[in-house]
Design a protein that fits this description.
single chain, about 325 residues, alpha/beta, 434 Repressor (Amino-terminal Domain), Rossmann fold, 3 domains, 6-stranded parallel sheet, 6-stranded mixed sheet, 13 helices, 12 strands, about 45% helix
Length: about 325
């Protein structure tokens, strides 16, 4: 069945095509004398024919697509979906749609990702944290695109950005464990690129040094299987840690499983804490102590910065710091030796 056009709507309503266009675009500033009765006839004809405006044609005329491209690095971790939820809700409220681009944790896919981005008619981009580290040429491409960019990142950036760093939360978490009497505190550092989690790793090392204690880190990939094996190895040591930090909540679930398989209780024998406060963290057994990154709020903040940039392109760089907070639950407790 042929898709109805503006010409069809005009014929059904008994008006000119330009009148249909003015009604659709609500161009009241042009002071076109369109009566309420004529406007209603056009709207009735649109409903009867099932006419939908051609978004591509509208964007060519206006120079704006009302679409924002979002680049997400990891689809397995619920934390990124929480950020995405905040972005999506805020964009909808502002009348924008979202185009999501995902790239795997594989630099060989870099060219494909950038090629895909070049095809997308979007007004601007929101770049989630890890993407910048995984795609070395991505930042350069976005700069040359001439379109506004907002990053959600753990460090300073050249674009407008939301600083989503866990430094203060890590310090709170370490203080919490030290107060519980823990002196052998390990770190399961499951990350594909080491710089992604430096906001946590550096504070972990710094606090232990201040307390005269030695770090006990084990680096692995971001997979659940590797995190499980790393924890199993660390907890099998004769002088095993009494507490473990895990780079994110998703991997902390695997760490708790490893402890259980070794016959250790959490938190009786080993305290476990993560980062992100994903929804699952309040439903694990035991419930997981974590540092919340207030993910959805970060997404909303990113949209706010991008909308500001749309309105005032010459604004100085905008920087917002995301709030983080320690949430103490059942997976951490006093040391028992």
């Amino acid at each position: 069945m042929k898709r109805p056009t503006q010409k069809d709507v005009a014929q059904r309503a008994g008006v000119s095509r330009s009148t249909v266009s003015y009604v659709l675009n609500d161009q009241t500033e042009l002071k076109i004398p369109i009566s309420d009765e004529t406007r209603q006839r056009v709207m009735d004809a649109i409903a009867e024919l099932g006419y939908e405006p051609d978004a591509r044609a509208q964007s060519l005329r206006s120079g704006s697509t009302n679409i924002v491209g979002v680049i997400i690095p990891v689809i397995q971790n619920p934390f990124f979906w929480q950020i995405l939820s905040g972005i999506s809700e805020s964009l909808q409220e502002a009348g924008y749609s979202l185009h999501l681009t995902h790239h795997p944790l594989d630099q060989q896919q870099e060219a494909n990702t950038i090629r895909e981005l070049t095809r997308q008619p979007v007004d601007g981009f929101i770049l989630l944290a890890a993407a910048k580290y995984l795609l070395p040429r991505l930042t350069d491409y976005l700069r040359k695109s001439g379109r506004p960019v907002v990053e959600i990142t753990a460090a300073k950036a050249e674009f407008d950005h939301v600083v989503h760093a866990y430094s203060s939360g890590t310090r709170e978490l370490m203080a919490h464990l030290l107060e519980l009497g823990h002196r052998r505190i390990g770190f399961i550092y499951g990350i594909s690129n080491e710089v992604q989690g430096f906001d946590r790793l550096l504070i972990y090392r710094e606090v232990l040094e201040e307390a005269g204690l030695q770090p006990n880190e084990i680096h692995c990939s971001e997979s659940l299987k590797d995190a499980y094996q790393a924890a199993y190895t660390l907890l099998s040591e004769p002088d095993r840690p009494t507490a473990l930090l895990v780079i994110n909540d998703m991997l902390a679930v695997a760490v708790i499983r490893a402890a259980n398989d070794l016959g250790l209780t959490v938190p009786g024998d080993i305290s476990v804490a993560g980062f992100d406060d994903i929804p699952f963290s309040d439903f694990t057994s035991p419930r997981l102590t974590t540092v919340s990154g207030m993910a959805e709020d970060s997404g909303r903040d990113a949209v706010r910065l991008l909308l500001n940039r749309f309105v005032e392109p010459d604004l100085p760089q905008q920087v917002t710091t995301a709030h983080v907070r320690l949430i103490v639950r059942e997976s951490t407790g006093p040391v028992h030796e």
